[in-house]
Every structure is written in structure tokens, then in C-alpha cells.
């Protein structure tokens, strides 16, 4: 069992818990023989779901946790007081080395706080950024940071560029990934105080491939592999991506239903269009890792179904095969 | 002539000047009998373009200007030194009351600086915000501010909410328009220092219909009529809107060309789809007004063709029929 990748799945996190997390665990186990999954949460509910499926029983263990952290709760307080919650128990297993990674679709705030407080940051890391992959014309880019720690300093953003580079190189497998700084103009002197200061620091940072400012207009085209920004703007970019993609797809569908001619056309194009739009579907990319921690913490959408949760689990395999915390710590010492 | 709406059009501004601006002027004049247009720029070039068209010669005047402000130039310096440029000459005509409004597709920076320096702000206005209408599922929202003045204070954002409310009420004709503050969460205590401070001030601001925080995800759905944010985030939202819409439409087209079946379907759906996507085309809405000034300054895209420029000119009619500067000044005195 020691060669297995051990992933904790918060079975009580997300809008469709425990049904979808349990289904995701079963699917991930059946697809990947090197996986071992711990399901944390209410034992009876989890077992009831598990009865529906066939799965390798020697690679799954239910770890009972009596409490659940709800989305509305104040994150810091919830982490501190709900010691017997599915999330806190799971995070502790990562901290204690009993598991390599944890995946949760639960409260973003609680996952972010819990990751930093319980799993803890790699020494030297000032802030742990939440860094999802966002779809682009060329494939995808890493958007770092989209977390809850706003009002960042330029030194934080420089670390995000370094951590993002290590992630894209060693987990995603992109050689010499480009780093762009989100700004409101391409020129060096553009932007707010934070962007200007960060630009100068990034220019002098070794070990990253800084290509300068990136305007938001060029992010969907894939202007940079790593898109560096502070969490407020990152959050706006991530959520506008989701909202606008949803609205445009809705508009296209409305257009298709507007005339008889377009309805017939719509039936003909459906398979091709589905394939194309799939590449812009965030669930394909699984969850967002909280980087810079001593273990791996992955946050998936609260609305995630089993496919997305499963992809998040599979993501952990590649991640844990590499010693990312070691690499980050090594680079920051330089 | 005194009852006419007098609009200056910077004939040398934008990527397709003077051809597209001149064409736009002719189209606007032919469609609106209450319009009078001044075209500022190089007389010989403008006249050469004008020869191509039939138009009411008594409602158009060419005002010669020998210089052009280029996009790459430092805005403040360009405004100061190029006194005989098409933009500066036009702005001065607005300042001196010879014209009611100016439309330019030239350098955004120069238009923003020139508007504030030459046309000048309404007394009491701290910053003049650039406020485009962005398409939503319900129609459109006013995104205020998208300008170049970053690092805003909360008092600026409160003024944006007030100015935006007056604009949406009296120019666009929406009764009791809703005001939302861009933030990374719906709850009152969410966000960075600026958002938290602004939230508290907006709650207590009279004469606006503040509905709380708006997450970027909900902007395309039309969550608020007036979307208040500081210029850095506003710029990111505006440009991501453009970039993402472009990328998604490209993806849809790629999908349609991928199989024979989808190609046939594509031909059938083309007219319906074109209609739907038109509502998400920024050129339909014309330009972005620079609000809070003593006259009207409208900035259109550098890449604007005649339709967009024409729509920007027509926008000015409604605007100048109302005494917006007076209303803003009145409200800020309260």
C-alpha cells in the first residue's frame, strides 16, 4: 500500500454530497489502480451510497467524521471549532502524512483557511495561492491567485510567478512556461501601484520566463501560460469567465431555437458544437490546487458533479509524484 | 441652427481614420435631421472622403487641424503640446460652448486626459469616470469606471454610483436603476479594503438604489443596471468581455467547420445566430461616455467602423437633450 497515491476525499463537501463525491471516488478507483481513497464524513450516509457500486474494497476506507462545515459559516471559526468535520479530519490526515492529498467541494473559505492553518505553508512561502487552470484558445492557462487573501503585496505576486512556474513545469509538463502580469496596458509604465512595482520585480526574478504585461482581452487567446494577479482581480477574471461562457452558450442556444431553419441546423451541429464547447468547460480541468502548502489541497466547485471531482482526484496523482513542496522551498531559498 | 445638437467628430482618430469617421458622420446626418456635425482634422483628407457621399452640406462643417495625436504618445504631453490636433481643437469647441459633444476613436489616454483638462469636470466631481454600456442577458449594464485613473478611493466609487444613476435614469431611461458593487463575494464583509469601505458608504448614500455586492459571475446575467468598480478591475472586466466573446464565437465557428454535417447545419443556423450574437456585439452600443464633465466626451473603440462611430454620435443627441452636468452638480451639493 505504500506505493499507492493516497487521496482524501471530503465526502460531505459540495452541493451534491455525499452522492456525487462517493460516485467520483468509485470511478477514480476503477480507472486508476495506483489510487487509494479515504472518504471522510458520516459513515452511514457514505456506506449507503457505496452500496450502489462495485469497487476495489481494498483501496477505499471510510473515515467517520460527525460534523459538516457549511458554506455560510465563518471559515476561521469553523476550522477551529469543528474538529470532527469531514474537512478538518481530512486536512489533518494530510498534515500527519497519512494521505498525500485532499480534494474538497466544500466551502472555499474553509478549504483555504484550513489548508494554510492545518496543512501549513512551505517555509518561505508568504501566501498560499489558489490557482485554477482556465481554458484558452491554445489549451489552458494557470490563473494565480484566485483565493480569498486580497490586498496582496508585490512580493506575494513574485512568489505566485515562481510557484506557478514550478507547477506548470513539473505537474502540467510545459517547458519554460511564459509568465504574464495582468495589467490594463501592455506598456511597462501602465497600471496601478501594485502592478507597476510587481513588473519591476518580475523583470529581475530568475528562473521564470516573464513576458511582460497581459491585458485581460488577451487572456482567452492564451497570451501567457501563467497569468499572475492578486486575488481580487483573479477572482473577478475566474468568475467572469464562468458567467460569460454560460451566458454566451445560452444565447447561442436561444438563437438556434428561434426559427424552424435554425432548429434543423441546430440538430445537425449539435455533436460538433458539443465537442468544441467541452474544451471551454471548467469541469474538464478538475479543481483548483491551493499551492505552496506542505501537502496538496484541491478545491473543486461546490456544484461539481462526479466527473469534475474524479478529475480533481486524478490530478493529485501527477502532483504527488513530484516533490513540489521541496522544489518550491529550494527555489525560494535562492 | 441653435436648436440643432452640435457634435464634433474627431475625423483623424482611430485605426480607420479619416475614412470611417467621415462615413459615420454622413450616415448620422442622413438619419438625424436635428444633428449638426463638425469634423476636425486635415481638411484636404476629409474633403477627399466627403466627395464620395451625398449629405446635407448645411449641417456639416470641416474644421481644419494640422496635427494628429497618435495612440503611442504620452497623453498629458500630447494634449499640452499638440494644440492644433483634431482632438484638442474639438475638445476646445466643447469647452467654449461651440459644440455640445465630441466623439473620438483616438488614443484613450489622450481623450481621458483632454476631457478632464480641457472640457473640465463638473464642480464637486473628484474623478471623471469612463462608463461603457456592456451587453447582458437582460440588455445592458453601465460599467463605471473603466478609465485610466487607477488606485481609486471609496469616495470616488460613491460618486461613480451617483453619476451612473443620473446617466441611466435620464439618458438611458431606466427608472430607479439598481447599483451593484463588484466584489468577490455576496456578503457585506467580503472583499478588499476598498470594497468593504465602499460598501458601507453606498449603503448610506441617498438617491441611489444600492443592491449590494455583485460577483463577476453574475454581471453577464445582468445582476445590476450600474456596475460600480475602480478603473483597474473595470478595465479587466471590459477587456475580458471583449476577449472572451471573441474566443467563444471563434470556437463555435471552428466547431461548425469540423464535420460535413456541422457545415450544413452551420449554413442553416447562420442568420439566426448572427441576430443573437449581435446583441453581444459591443459596436451596437456605440462608445463609452466620459461622465462628470461640463460637456459630453465619448470615446469609441480605436478599431471602430462607421456603424459604431455613428451610434456614438446618435448617443450624444439624447445626452445633450438633458442637462446632465447640472443634475450631477445639484446631486453632489446635497
Write up this protein.
2 copies of one chain form a homodimer. With about 325 residues, the first copy, chain A, is of the alpha/beta class. Chain A is built from 11 helices and 11 strands. Chain A has helices at about 20-30, 45-50, 75-80, 85-95, 110-120, 155-170, 195-205, 230-255, 260-280, 305-320, 325-334; strands at about 5-10, 35-40, 60-65, 100-105, 135, 140-145, 180, 210-215, 225-230, 290, 295-300. In chain A, strands 3-2-1-4-11-10 form a 6-stranded mixed beta sheet, sandwiched between helices. Chain A has a 5-stranded mixed beta sheet with strand order 5-6-9-7-8, with helices on both faces. In chain A, helix 6 (about 155-170) packs across helix 11 (about 325-334). The longest helix of chain A has 26 residues, at about 230-255. The two termini of chain A are about 35 Å apart. The model of chain A has no long low-confidence stretch (mean pLDDT about 90). At the A-B interface, helix 8 and helix 9 of A face helix 8 and helix 9 of B.
Amino acid at each position: 500500500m505504500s506505493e499507492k497515491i493516497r487521496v482524501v476525499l471530503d465526502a460531505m463537501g459540495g452541493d451534491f454530497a455525499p452522492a456525487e463525491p462517493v460516485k467520483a471516488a468509485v470511478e477514480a478507483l476503477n480507472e486508476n489502480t495506483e489510487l487509494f481513497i479515504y472518504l471522510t464524513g458520516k459513515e452511514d450516509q457514505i456506506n449507503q451510497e457505496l452500496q450502489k457500486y462495485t469497487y476495489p474494497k481494498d483501496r477505499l476506507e471510510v473515515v467517520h467524521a460527525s460534523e459538516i462545515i457549511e458554506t455560510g459559516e465563518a471559515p476561521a471559526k469553523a476550522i477551529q471549532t469543528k474538529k470532527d468535520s469531514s474537512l478538518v479530519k481530512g486536512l489533518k490526515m494530510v498534515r500527519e502524512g497519512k494521505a498525500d492529498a485532499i480534494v474538497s467541494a466544500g466551502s472555499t473559505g474553509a478549504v483555504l483557511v484550513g489548508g494554510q492553518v492545518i496543512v501549513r505553508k512551505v517555509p518561505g512561502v508568504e501566501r498560499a495561492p489558489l490557482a485554477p487552470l482556465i481554458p484558452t484558445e491554445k489549451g489552458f492557462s494557470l490563473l494565480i491567485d484566485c483565493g480569498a487573501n486580497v490586498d496582496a503585496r508585490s512580493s506575494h505576486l513574485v512568489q505566485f510567478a515562481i510557484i506557478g512556474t514550478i507547477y506548470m513545469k513539473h505537474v502540467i509538463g510545459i517547458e519554460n512556461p511564459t509568465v504574464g502580469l495582468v495589467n490594463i496596458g501592455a506598456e511597462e509604465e501602465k497600471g496601478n501601484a501594485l502592478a507597476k512595482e510587481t513588473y519591476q520585480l518580475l523583470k529581475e526574478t530568475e528562473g521564470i520566463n516573464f513576458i511582460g504585461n497581459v491585458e485581460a482581452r488577451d487572456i482567452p487567446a492564451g497570451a501567457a501560460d501563467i497569468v499572475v494577479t492578486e486575488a481580487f482581480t483573479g477572482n473577478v477574471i475566474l468568475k467572469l469567465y464562468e458567467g460569460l461562457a454560460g451566458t454566451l452558450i445560452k444565447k447561442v442556444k436561444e438563437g438556434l431555437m428561434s426559427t424552424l431553419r435554425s432548429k434543423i441546423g441546430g440538430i445537425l451541429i449539435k455533436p460538433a458544437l458539443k465537442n468544441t464547447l467541452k474544451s471551454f468547460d471548467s469541469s474538464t480541468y478538475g479543481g483548483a490546487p491551493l499551492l505552496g502548502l506542505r501537502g496538496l489541497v484541491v478545491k473543486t466547485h461546490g456544484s461539481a458533479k462526479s466527473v469534475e471531482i474524479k478529475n480533481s482526484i486524478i490530478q493529485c496523482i501527477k502532483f504527488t509524484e513530484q516533490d513540489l513542496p521541496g522544489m518550491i522551498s529550494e527555489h525560494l531559498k535562492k
